[in-house]
Amino acid sequence: MSRFFIVLLAISFSFLCSSSSAIQIDYDANAVIIDGQRRIILSGAIHYPRSTPQMWPDLIQKAKNGGLDAIETYIFWNVHEPRRREYDFTGNLDFVKFFQLIQQAGLYGILRIGPYACAEWTYGGFPVWLHNIPGIEFRTNNEIYKNEMQIFTTKIVNLCKEAKLFASQGGPIILAQIENEYGNIMGPYGGAGVAYMNWCAEMAIAQNIGVPWIMCQQDNAPRSVINTCNGYYCDSFNPNNPKSPKMWTENWIGWFKKWGERDPHRTAEDTAFAVARFFQRGGVLQNYYMYHGGTNFGLTAGGPLITTSYDYDAPLDEYGNLNQPKWGHLKQLHAALKLGEKIITNGVQTTKNLGNGVDLTTYTNNATGERFCYLSNIDGSKDANIDLQQEGKYFVPAWSVSILEGCNKEIYNTAKVNVQTSIMVKKPLTATASWSWTPEIMKDTLHGKGNFTASKLLDQKQASSESSDYLWYTTSFNINAKTKNAILSVNSSGEVLHAYVNKKLIGDQMGNTFQFQKPISLKHPKNTITLLSVTVGLQNYGSFFDVQPNGISGGPVKLIDAKTNATLLDLSSNLWTYKIGLNGEAKRLFDPNSKKAKGHAWFTTKQVPKGRPMTWYKTSFKVPQYTDPVVVDLQGMGKGHAWVNGNSLGRFWLTQIADLNGCSATCDYRGGYSANKCVSNCGNPSQRWYHVPRSFLNNGDNTLVLFEEFGGDPSNVSFQTITVGTVCGNAYEGSTLELSCQGGSKIMGIEFASFGDHHELCGSFSKGSSEAINTLSIVQKVCVGKGICSIEVSDKTFGGNNATSSDRRLAVQAVCS
After folding, report:
1. Which is the catalytic residue, given 250, 261, 709, 771?
2. Total-model pTM
C-alpha cells in the first residue's frame, strides 16, 4: 500500500487526547503550534442550530473521516438570548455539548463568537430586542451597544470556561473570533468604526481565554489578534502582521440560495485548486464554509429572502449525506497535504515561475533535506506538460495544482477526480392520511382588535417580536358622502403585503421595497383598512443593515384620487392598531400536543379545499424506521410554514420559480468561480423538498401541519427518503476507485464499465477507441452484491489488452438498491 493511502487511513482514525491537561496554542508565520507540534489546520464549518443534536455525532465523524482537524461554528446571539437576559442553551442550541462531541471525536474546535454572525441568518444573529433599546447603534463606538455585546460575549466565554472547552484548559477550542467581516463594511462608520474595532480586540483579549483571537476580513486589525481572509480564493492574502500565520476562515465552497434563484454549484476540482494554491503560497489554516450547511429551521433564514435550505453545495449535504465527488476528492487532498505537513511548517519556501502561468513551489527542510513541492497551472484554458529533468515529467491540466511528494512523485492533482459521483434519489414512503383543515380566524383582527396602538406607522422590528413573520396594521377613517372610490397606496419595506378594506381582501403584492396600489370602493361614513405585512427573513449584512426599514415603516399609506392623482387622505399619522402574528400561531395549531390547540375545530371534507388563502392544513403519517434521511415534498403548496410534530421545518414558498435560463448539464471547473457560474434547477421551485430530521419523528403516528398564506393544494404532498441511487466512478490509472452505496443498500448492477479512453459523463458514459475487454466482468465480480468495493486502476487488475491510451481511466456506473 502506498504511503499516500496509509496517511489517508491514519487521518481517518487519528485520535486527539481529551485529557484535562492544558494544551499550549502558539503560532508563527508558518504554523499553528499545538503543544510544540507544528501544524497546518484543515477545518470545516458545521453550525449546531442548523442540524439536531442527534445528527451531530454523525456529521462530526464524517468531517473527521474526510480528513479535517477542526470544526468551526458561529454563536447565534438571537436564539440564545431571545429576550433580554433570558437565555436558552438547550436542544440544538447546546453549543457546549456540540464542542464536547467535537473533542470526543478527536478534533479541535474554532469558536466564532462575533457576536455579529452574518451567516445568512436573520438579522445577522442579532436579537431584535437589541434594536429596540433607545439610543443604541450597532457595530460602532456606541457605549450601549458595546455594553450589551460585552455582556453576551462574556456569557459565552464563561460557559466555555465552566465546561473547560478552551485548549488552555484541556478542551478542544484552539481559536476564537471576535466581530466578523467588519472590514468589508467599516468605511461608512468612519473614526467611530476604527475605535470600535480596536475596542473589540481589547475586550476579547481581556477575556483571558488562553488561546489566540482572530478577526476575519479586517486588514487593519490590531496585532494582538490575527487577521484572516474570507472568499473563494485566498492564496494572495497576507496577514498584516508578518509574525501571524496565513489563515483562511471562510473558503466559500458553494453559495447560499434565495427564493426565486437557481441552485449554485462549485465543482470539486475548483475547490481543491483553491485549497492547494492557498497552501502552496504559505497557508497555515483553511476552513470550509460550509462543510455541512444544514437547514434554516423556524424563522432563522435571513437575507431577506434566503431559502430554508442552507445546503451550500457543501461536502456534507443538507441531510448529512456525503456530497460526492466533493467530499472524497477533498479527503484525498487533505491526505496529500498532511504528507508534507512537517516539511512545509519547518521548511524554507522557494517559488520558480516556469512560464505560461505555471509555478513550482518547493518547501525544503534544511535540517533533514526533505522536500515537498506544488506544481500549479493557473491558466484557465491551457494544459501544461512540464519537464523537471531528473524530477520527472508532469502533465498539469489547466487550473490545477499537482502535489509532489519528495518533489519527484505526483500524489494528487486537483483536476483529476478519482472518487465516485453519487446521484441521489428520492424514494416514496407511505402516503399521508386524509387532510383536515381550518381557516385562520381573522374576524377579531379585521375588526381592529390588536395588541397595542400608535399614531404612526411603526417599523416591523420595533412593533413585533421574532416569534412571527406577520404583523397586522389596522386603522379606521371617515369620508364624506361624495367619496366613493379611490386608490389605496401603500409603501412597503416588507417582502409581502396583504391588503383588506372593510374586511375584504383587495389584493396582495410581493417584493423587496415596493409600492402597492389598488382601486377600492368606500362606504359612508366609516371605513377600515387592515394591512398584513410579512417579512421573509431580516436583513443580515451591510453597513447599518440593522436600521433598514421593515414592514410599512413610515409608509406613507394614502388614499389617492384615481382621476387627478391627488392625495385625498394621508393615513400615515392615523391611530393604528397593531397585532403580532396569527391567531393560529397564538393557539399553537402547529403543535399536536399543545393545550392551547385542544378543542380547536378542524374540518374534514371529502375534497380538501384548494387555492384557499390563510388556511391551516393537518394530516397524519407513518415513517418506517430506516436510516436514510426523510424529506417532505410540498409540491402543490404556495407560501407558508411547515411543522412536523410541533417542530418547525421552516418557511416554504413553492411559487417562487427559478430562472428558466442559465443552467447546463456540464460545468467547466476552469477559471475563477462566481455564484452564477454553474447553476441548476432552472424553471423549478427554488425549494420543493424540506428536511424532516429523524429526531422529529415518532415510531407511530406523526402530524404534519401546514399554514398556507396564498392558496395551495396539499393533495400531492408526500414523504420520501433520500439515498444514493446511482454511483459513477471515473478514476485515473494508478489510483484506487472506491464505490459505495448508503443506508444498507448494495450494488445490484453495473450499467457501464470501461478501462480505456472512454467518453465521460455520469449517466451517459460511452466507450472510446480502446479499452480492456474484460472490464465489465471484472468490476461485476468485485462489486455486485456489496455495499462498498475497491478497485485498483491498473493493468494488473484489467490487463493491457486493447487499451492503448496514455491517459487511461476506469469508468464505472453502478446501481444501488
Report:
1. 250
2. 0.96
